[in-house]
Amino acid sequence: MIRPNLLQSNLKTGHDREVLAVYPYRSACPRSVWTQLIAEARSEVFLAGFTNYFVWLEQPALLQTLRRKAENGCRIRFLLGDPDSDTTRRREQIEDVALTVSTRIRVSLENLAKLSDTAGVEARFSAPEDGPNHVSLSVFRFDEHALVTPHLARTVGHDSPLMHLRRSGENGMFDRFAEHIEELWSRGSDIRPAPARA
User: Fold this and answer.
1) What integer pLDDT is reported at residue 90 of this predicted model?
2) What sign results for the dihedral spanned by CA atoms 105, 155, 133, 143?
3) What's the pTM?
């Protein structure tokens, strides 16, 4: 006989149903998860990490994938921190690593410049007043899925934890994080990347 309280304690019945997986480190999330989420997104890819640096390195042919998705009607957005902001400078002092935050942002900007002629790809810097909120929480949205990384103390992104969420209803965990990045986006300023060098 199954006891109801035992069954309930082992089944997700509330908003935690939206939590598909948790990883103690972002780097522990298999690269294949990112690849699959990007590939399967049809309407929305929203990368709202402060630098978004690692996706360019870890996802093969990302430029071509994003260009193709945009051409097929998928909205592609990048929200970055301003490499020249006070928040960026403070974070660089905190992290104290050779590959600085501003350098990582500039890698993303260099790659985004190669997509500057692609309709459906948008990029913004978060507003200066939002810098502390942006740098402390990265949210990557792929339609009804999201990968969320709260940045801990002095840790860089790959050493921070990650949650994989899938939307299952209104006002759940997914919606809370989606609303957060939409709010940051609404106050951001458009990035006009210089044309890519030939």
Assistant:
1) 93
2) positive
3) 0.88
